[in-house]
Records
---
Amino acid sequence: MKKDMILQISTDVSHVLGILDIFGFECFDSNGIEQLCINFVNERLQQYFVKNYLVSCRNDLQKEGLIDDEESFKIVQLYEDRISTIEKYLFTVINDMCLSTVPNSSSTLIRQVNAKNCPATRRFLNIRKENFVIQHYCGTVQYSAYDLLSKNTDKIPDEITITFSMSTNKFLHSLITKNSQHQVNGKVKKPTMLSKLRYNVDLLLQELNKCDTHYIRCIKPQRLNSHEWDRDNLRKQLANTGILEALPLARCKYPIYFIYWDFFKRYSRKRTANCSNLRTACKNILESSSLNDDNSLVHYGKRLIFLRESVFLQLEAARRRYRAECVWKIESFWLKYSKYLFARIKIHIFVSIIKAQ
């Protein structure tokens, strides 16, 4: 197979299973533009997770009459303000200075950012000596301004540009075409590392909006000794993955919930095909199991039934017992039927022997 055929990208795909695996949040003793890019992407993805998953879940709970607060709106607004501050008051200044024909230095960059900063944005962005300090969702990170402008220019070596532009492979040629110009606010400008990062993150989020997304947060706990975990390290990992930030929104009094029909199918012992009132039927199931005495353990919504964990465990235990009883009855019936068949066979053989004599 030719190399150019291997690199061709087919876009005619109706169903795609994609895995997005990125660097986690980074905070070292010395942080540069690499950490700034990684942490900005994590910031945008955390905002997407909070806005499109957790807030939508809370809106569903609010429709079911379970919660009534404005906490989700405040948290979403906090993310929008933080990202807007980073983009407008830091990224824009860095990009403008990189595209400027006037020579600039890191000290000039610090003065420019400090001049545009205002009290409303200082809770997210500050200046400390020759460094930028950003308050991210998981903590404060200090970024060095040294080499920030030169690295943000992101100039591709001329040898690569010439080689890729002369290539007959469409994929390689498109890489140079995409990097040769970049549109910002309707104007074509030379791309920088930060401008390309923002552009690609926007494309990524557009693709995620088309997908049914599921989330996996990975941590790696470490032991201090054979009997004790490193709690500080574990807490830091939980913060860096955004789990601690998401807990206030994810917290719910009733962690288990079912659609009424699913609850009825799972726990009803009489599978009625057409149940006129599923909510009443679900109440009857709980009453028959003596689990409806305490109203604080169950909440009946418009479309969903919510359960405390203790109720769910009792229902599952009762379901297992009932299924075990059904299995025992089937086995007993089968044993009796087998004995009956064996007796009939013996009688048939005995009658056949008598007739033969």
Note: The first strand starts at residue 125 and ends at 128.
---
Amino acid sequence: MKSAAFLVIISVCQWLCRFGESRLLEPNCGIRTMPSFHRTRIIGGSDAEITSHPWMAYLYNEFHYFCAGTLITNQFVLTAAHCIEASKNLTVRLGGSGLTRSDGSMCQITAEDYSVSMAIKHKYFTPSIMLNDIAMIRLARTVKFYDHIRPICIILDPAVRLLLEDGMTLMATGWGLADKRMHPHLLQEAPITVMNRNVCSKLYDVAITQGQICAGDKETNTCLGDSGGPLGGVVNYYGDLRFVQYGITSFGDIECRSPSIYTDLSTYSGWINMVVSQYRK
């Protein structure tokens, strides 16, 4: 993940809004706990505590890490369809900010690995133009929620699209390549600016549909390895601050210095709900 060299402070206030009767896929979602003051942080850096993003899923095979995802219920992880196509013998790791199962802190937060019982890609996924780049993974066993393992919020209402405006700031997280073209040892977070779809249409010479989001710039962006991870922000849901996922990291330019494309979840909330209803155990 490419991040700006300076510290950017995002005001939660710019996210406050209400959704009326909109439903959440998982009621106990989007809840974050403050990191313990015993834990160390890099001043002005972009390392992220797993308790700040407890829904982050780390996808790897017998060889290496290759994609991210998000826990959305106690059985399902959301990711990009091209991540599912890219690997077999998939394992999902939850609850860890680093590349190892233990975070090395005094509290010794330990990640948990889950086998995959089923992977479901959108049936109209088109790899050549990365259209409908969305997939879901059903885990082989049920997840228990803790402070470091919780689901992200998925709003089951296409009207969430109305919240996205050009110039607004969302948060992206992942383990993708950083400025030195190396995978970081810890989970990274970065503020990402939403751009007009026409910017990405001209850049990639392809029509960017309503089911896609254009976001990022040369200073702050996602990169190779961030695929499948979330683009989201904080929302006031009936008086509670919840972290809601708006998009899935899909693709971008090879240098990671131009806006990237994200799958817009407002278009796929019905598909997500259908998959959960049809395939849950």
Note: The chain is about 10% helix and 30% strand.
---
Amino acid sequence: TWGFFERKNKMSGSSPVMFWNFFSHLGPRILVLFFSLFSGVLGDCGPPPVLKYAKPYDPIKSVYKPYESVAYKCLPGHEDDPSKPFIALCSPDKGWNKLEEFCERGCENPQETRFSVVSDDDFLYFYPVGSVVHHICDRSAEPILGHPKRPAITCLSNFTWTSVPVFCKGKSCGDPGKPENGNRIILTDFLLKATVNFTCNEGYQLIGSPTSQCLSRSLSNNTVVWKPKPPICFRPTCPPPPEIKNGTYTGGKNGTFPLNSNVTYMCDPGFSLSGDDLHCITEDNKTGIWRGSVPKCKGDCPRPDLPPHSSLKGGGPEDTYPT
């Protein structure tokens, strides 16, 4: 007998040491035998199932280990049915599980019209051929008398929807008017979802949005307003330009200096101008500022040379001396 069977427990006839010795000798052999047998049962799978309207996300392998899975995605132009599985699983004893076609070609989501939307009761994740949905008036539109209140449209075999009849009319925002010193461009009308563009006259800056749309006031208020509010046309002006010594300037209109105006400086007789004109610009569309350096009028005679150990009374290095 093996030595580890020779140790006996006086009370029970066996010893914990005996079992430990037994496992330490045969345990590894049993584990090797178990996994070798189990690996024979866990068979590999070949290529995954082929679907007509879907393909695997990842490249296909020739062999898959047990419990590996393959996820599929619909081919372009097809939609998936969320109620059906899209993952194939390699079973160790049955191979790949049966995967039904979960992709179909159907119509795209039905679109709303200017004055109507698809009823929430008919919302689906997928619209196969033959699907029927109903349109209802937008909350800021009203049904036209004598027309159906819930016209139906159908997904056709060519995967398009039948046309939606005109059965609603949007509420009106009214004429937003022309901004002072500007104009408005009417693209269609003043009804729900209409758009109006705005421009300003030359020399004026548009403050706000150049476009407004007629929309519902809020989720709880079905009245309509222009959003955003129509802009204003503002004419930035510059302050009077700086005066210069021995010179003056011309420019502006009636004592004002609008945007893009120029100021030209001139010197008194006997002086010459050093510098350029000033130009009125804006950097924030609100305030006008002068661009350019303020010129100077300099005399024709330079500063006289001084003899050694002498000084000149009055004036400074920037003074000029007219003839």
Note: The domain at 182-234 is CATH 2.10.70.10 (Complement Module; domain 1).
---
Amino acid sequence: MYLHKCPHPYHRAKKRQVIEKYAAIILAVSLVLLFLIGRFSVRGVEKYEEVNKALGEQIAQLEKTNNFLQKKQDFVDSENVISQQAEQSARRELAKLHDELSAATEQIAFYQRIVAPEKFTKGVYAQSFNISEDSGLGQKFQLVIVQGASTRRDVKGRVDIQIEGAQGNQMKALKFSEVSSKKRTSLPFSLRYYQVLSGEITLPAGFMPKQVIVKITASSSKSKPSVKRWLWSEVTTSL
């Protein structure tokens, strides 16, 4: 196949102008594209660095928060352990104090019964009984009766006294009517707080007294009799 070549200078010049024109356009477009690509590349790098920096700051903040929460959790765990130990110690101390309080309460109640028995006794009861011995057979006695603190009202009744001992080889109980110098069967009383009763008794010859029994009976049907016993050696004093 035969290719036609135009040797005319005009056509060659025209062709060169066209090539130069389009080459300039292509070069300009290429430069613009390169500029845009470079610009977008720079912006992409800057954006990446900006995002990366923000992520780094967030990671650092999260690590800081995590460390704070971890320390707080450790503190809470330690506080719980200390609280449990303190609670157990407090329970032991409370149990110990409860035992000590119970023991102290029992001791106080014991001494109160000795010092102030009327606080724990209901009704009328015999507080003391004393007998004064003389050289003869006659003996004077003094009996103190008291009404308990739980009741503060006028009350009446009678007191029966009995003396137990030995007559020879036999045990014998003497009623008040058998030893009273005035042959009384009992002693009447009337009191609100306390009353002192006194009198004189005479024991039979050869009678060896061992103990005295005092029985107090209030006139009220609701009151139970009160009975108190003393050894003879505890209530007698020699003149």
Note: The mean pLDDT is 78.
